[in-house]
Amino acid sequence: AQSVTQLDSQVPVFEEAPVELRCNYSSSVSVYLFWYVQYPNQGLQLLLKYLSGSTLVKGINGFEAEFNKSQTSFHLRKPSVHISDTAEYFCAVSYSGGYQKVTFGIGTKLQVIP
Amino acid sequence: KAGVTQTPRYLIKTRGQQVTLSCSPISGHRSVSWYQQTPGQGLQFLFEYFSETQRNKGNFPGRFSGRQFSNSRSEMNVSTLELGDSALYLCASSLVSGGAGELFFGEGSRLTVL
After folding, report:
1. Range of the domain at A86
2. For the domain that residue A46 is a member of, what is the CATH number?
3. Which of A15, B50, B51, B111 falls between 20 and 30 A from B70, CA-CA?
4. Chain B residues within 8 A of A44 when measuring between CB atoms
């Protein structure tokens, strides 16, 4: 069964510092990987996605992620965070072929400290 | 373009009652997925509908059911409510079924069971 592990439930970081949110997924031949963000009292919105091609994916708001097949990881990074980045971040995976569901991790709460 | 609309936004029920939640997807989207979000559990997949057919189902008891209408609007129903059903229920629509497409989320229906 497909699964996603987000290793950190909470990540505090000072404003303008870099951040990395970690995500590992259960191995499969072909995967689709996503990062979504949820601001308080809102639904989730897509930050970035990897379907195929370049392993470095750039998303909105200055975020990027790198697909590492050998380590089955898809870590999210931002070189300099802002207060407005305070939110919960979800890594998600789906697999190619057939009617595959999208499985989400439990989320990582990013708290940016002024 | 209107986003995903979920109604009601908030509701309170007592144990043993049943509840119906509604989701109107983005115009043109034929896939609707439902997720249950609780603290510490992240998003748990309930089911996905595409063109009125259930394409995938998560590991929830039969008390949880759903359907999709010809206009792509979807409803989910929970019968014989339990305290543990208290959660935020999120609906997401997509152009395609099968996990490769971006999910567009509504703001959710927050259910409290007393």
Report:
1. 3-113
2. 2.60.40.10
3. B111
4. 43, 90, 92, 103, 105
